[in-house]
Amino acid sequence: MDILYDIFLGKPIWMWAAFIGIVLILLVFDLGVLQKNTHEISLKESLFLSLFYIFLACGFGAWVWYYLGDSSGKEYFTGYIIEKTLSIDNIFVMSLIFSFFHIPRILQHRVLFWGILGVLVLRALMIGVGATLITEFSWMLYIFAVFLMFTGIKMLVVTESDPDISKNPVLKLLQKCFKISNELHGEKFLIRKLDPVTNLNVIWITPLLVALILIELADIIFAIDSVPAIFSITQDPFLVYTSNIFAILGLRALYFVLAAIIHRFSYLKPALALVLVFIGSKVFIAELLGIEKIPASISLGITLGLLTGGIAVSIYKSRA
């Protein structure tokens, strides 16, 4: 079993295998136990699941802190917190997609489960590409940093309107290339029925599958922000992937908790924008100060401070 101690992307294979094993167990538990009988997820159940995933993520972070050291632990938690916060915007888009296609809550879990399963693969590919680029071209880290600063400033100064799902180019392409059913067919993504034009029995895709495709696309767009953000915190692929995936695993449960009240956190977005500007500027600040990098404890403290402030102001203003 010596192969388990071989190094892959900076860490022994057994560490990667153990993490992937944990993820697979959670997915099997989710689909095979929690959703063995399809039902509408209540607020109480979603809150419990969300806290459960947060507890697991923190437990894994505690192990990282103990086994890999103080700095790695702080970098993991900083990445996890930023990814979790970025996912709130993703939740808002998911809510718009579900509303547009009139997907009932009882079916939303199925879309989110398969969506998150796809995200696990897509994030692995994007993180692998990012790690390779930084390893081969160290100057890419500066590109990531400038991109984050630009994104943060844009979030602060540009007022964005709600996206119009009907004008989404991917939706238009799907409508052009496939036959899309106007109504839902339970949990089915694909169905067979007669084509009124040709009178042939052909495959149609349901609104459930269209919603899944658009949610996957939305995550790719959000990953363009989150992947550079975590690489600006740490270049360790293991910390990058594990913090990302633990944040994503809890996204489904978090959706059912926040979807109805997300509008109350209006000041969280400016706080997140300031976090992105700070994370992006760290590389340049460190060079000006003549140090290798900003200490992980400072990064974690500033990130927590800004985001906590944004949440506190949002709650205060929404009560006023």
UniProtKB/TrEMBL annotation:
<comment type="similarity">
    <text>Belongs to the TerC family.</text>
</comment>
<feature type="transmembrane region" description="Helical">
    <location>
        <begin position="297"/>
        <end position="316"/>
    </location>
</feature>
<feature type="transmembrane region" description="Helical">
    <location>
        <begin position="86"/>
        <end position="104"/>
    </location>
</feature>
<dbReference type="GO" id="GO:0016020">
    <property type="term" value="C:membrane"/>
</dbReference>
<dbReference type="Pfam" id="PF03741">
    <property type="entry name" value="TerC"/>
</dbReference>
<feature type="transmembrane region" description="Helical">
    <location>
        <begin position="111"/>
        <end position="133"/>
    </location>
</feature>
<feature type="transmembrane region" description="Helical">
    <location>
        <begin position="202"/>
        <end position="224"/>
    </location>
</feature>
<feature type="transmembrane region" description="Helical">
    <location>
        <begin position="139"/>
        <end position="157"/>
    </location>
</feature>
<feature type="transmembrane region" description="Helical">
    <location>
        <begin position="46"/>
        <end position="66"/>
    </location>
</feature>
<dbReference type="InterPro" id="IPR022369">
    <property type="entry name" value="Integral_membrane_TerC_rswitch"/>
</dbReference>
<feature type="transmembrane region" description="Helical">
    <location>
        <begin position="244"/>
        <end position="262"/>
    </location>
</feature>
<protein>
    <submittedName>
        <fullName>Inner membrane protein Alx</fullName>
    </submittedName>
</protein>
<feature type="transmembrane region" description="Helical">
    <location>
        <begin position="271"/>
        <end position="291"/>
    </location>
</feature>
<keyword id="KW-0472">Membrane</keyword>
<feature type="transmembrane region" description="Helical">
    <location>
        <begin position="13"/>
        <end position="34"/>
    </location>
</feature>
<dbReference type="InterPro" id="IPR005496">
    <property type="entry name" value="Integral_membrane_TerC"/>
</dbReference>
<keyword id="KW-1133">Transmembrane helix</keyword>
<keyword id="KW-0812">Transmembrane</keyword>
